[in-house]
Amino acid sequence: MSAVMITRKVRKWEKLPGKNTFCCDGRVMMARQKGVFYLTLFLIIGTCSLFFAFECPYLAVHLSPAIPVFAALLFLFVMAMLLRTSFSDPGVLPRALPEEATFIEMEIEAANGNVPAGQRPPPRIRNVQINNQIVKLKYCYTCKIFRPPRASHCSICDNCVDRFDHHCPWVGNCVGKRNYRYFYLFTLSLSLLTIYIFTFDIVHVVMRSVDNGFLNTLKETPGTVLEVLVCFFTLWSVVGLTGFHTYLISLNQTTNEDIKGSWSGKNRVQNPYSHKNIIKNCCEVLCGPTYPSVLDRRGLMQDDSLVSATCAAPSSSSSSNATPQTTKTTAPLIPNEHTPDDAKPSIAASAEKSPSPKEELPPASKLPPLASPETDAETSIAKDKTH
Amino acid sequence: MPAFLLSSKFHNLQELRHSASLVTKVFIQRDYSEGTVCRFQTKFPSELDSRIERTLLEETVKTLNSYYAEAEKIGGQSYLEGCLACATAYIIFLCMETRYEKVLRKISGYIQEQNEKIYAPRGLLITDPIERGMRVLEISLFEDRGSGGSSPSSSMSSGSSAR
């Protein structure tokens, strides 16, 4: 038996812990369960296609050609926001490297002192004072870090996310510091699109019924019924969600903090991050700086792996901490991080997809590809014979 | 004083990594007293007492803090950038570099320069915080392999060279 040590250059995303899936060689980052995201896409695209197919020809002629144009622009904006929310890094905090983890452990032990045998050590908490308010920083046992203020660990994606809002199955990703404004703009524009389509559906039905009669109209444009149904249910949920997030933004709170009641005012606890001014809070959340991702997904790193010489292809020999990135399209989980107000944004949009800000979603890679086009296959072979 | 403290011995940081062995790493934590903006503590770690003057390190950390404050400043330019980007459905970010990214490049250049001028001659190396998730400012302490190991090698040294 002989084993061969191969050193390859791989992209860092292939070795990232956590339960994310990556596409386009690390450019796209999503959660594992994407089924509900596909449903969202289907509903938006489907409903909009019906709108463009049935209502728009009539309305463009009888009312104004601006109507389908504006609908198309709105649809493109909705899709751009959705894809940006779903595909971007929400603000994942990388796990501590071993030296840092050890350093923190030593600090904790020094702070705790000697714990008598049999007693549980005190919980790992660090207190910081922010704007005259004591904020407790909790220690994350998975990531081995003290979480920054407003960060939280998402159990679905198995990552600590900065300014964690919630995990949204409808967009197939966590909503955090980096993509919250895209998420908000998505819900806002989707509300507008829903209202727009709903309104013009009604207008169209009324105008046509005046000429042809109500039942004939429905027979001529059967898609209208479907659209109205979808829009009706969507309106209540998405508009409500937009209103809820507008409220949160004006107070500079996250969904997570709202659910846990962190700043509910009990025990004189105030939100230390709020500027006490609605305009300032809105501006900070929506027009603040665009934070870059601290996960270097596309950087190159060395990967040493031992390959058995008897194996036909080296495809099974990833290094020990490679997470198998299988995609499960099961029904969405509703975990503790999920907000109860998150209902379905079930609007469907036109089949025409303009070039979205990110590349199109290719089939999700099931396993970290060993030979992606840009992988530099440096083989420094050290034969290791074992008899 | 160990021989490698003469700056002429190390021409670049690569040489430092290859010729010296890693003793330990010191981590300067984030300072959250002003909220979630990126700031590092200016408290001087005791392990560096014998290696570098207090004022030099404080100066470095203060400059880094000011760079981060500039990147995260919420004012006219950030509003303009945000509104313009929103109007183009954020497609403009595919071609344009954001202000934050520009400042990060400046920071990276600054750290490189500080390492070459101040820290490498003293056997230290600062790692850019972005490589550690902006959580800590990592300072690696090196010991010249040739010398007899005048400073105690800490048990927490992982033995692997810094990335």
From TrEMBL, chain A:
EC number(s) stated in the UniProt entry for this protein: 2.3.1.225
Protein name as catalogued: Palmitoyltransferase
Chain segments annotated as transmembrane: 36-54, 66-83, 182-206, 226-250
Region described as Disordered: spans on this chain: 311-387
One Gene Ontology CC term in the entry: Golgi membrane
Kinase as UniProt keyword: no
This protein's UniProt keywords: Acyltransferase, Endoplasmic reticulum, Golgi apparatus, Lipoprotein, Membrane, Palmitate, Transferase, Transmembrane, Transmembrane helix
Broad class of where this protein is predominantly found: endoplasmic reticulum
Domain-level remarks: The DHHC domain is required for palmitoyltransferase activity.
Region forming the signal peptide: none
Positions of the Palmitoyltransferase DHHC domain: 136-260
Keyword NADP listed: no
Record membrane topology: Multi-pass membrane protein
Catalytic activity line of the entry: L-cysteinyl-[protein] + hexadecanoyl-CoA = S-hexadecanoyl-L-cysteinyl-[protein] + CoA
Similarity comment text for this entry: Belongs to the DHHC palmitoyltransferase family. ERF2/ZDHHC9 subfamily.
Source organism per UniProt: Amphiprion percula (Orange clownfish)
Molecular function terms, GO-annotated: protein-cysteine S-palmitoyltransferase activity
From TrEMBL, chain B:
InterPro entries registered for this protein in UniProt: Golgin_A_7/ERF4, Ras_palmitoyltransferase
Golgin subfamily A member 7/ERF4 domain: residues covered: 26-138
Main location: Golgi
Organism the protein comes from: Amphiprion percula
Gene Ontology annotations of biological process type: protein targeting to membrane
Compartments, as annotated in UniProt: Golgi apparatus membrane
Keywords: Membrane
Any single Gene Ontology cellular-component annotation: Golgi membrane
Record region (Disordered): 144-163
Compositional bias per record (Low complexity), positions renumbered to this chain: 150-163
Recorded family membership: Belongs to the ERF4 family.
Membrane-protein topology: Lipid-anchor
UniProt keyword Membrane, yes or no: yes
Protein name: Golgin A7 family member B
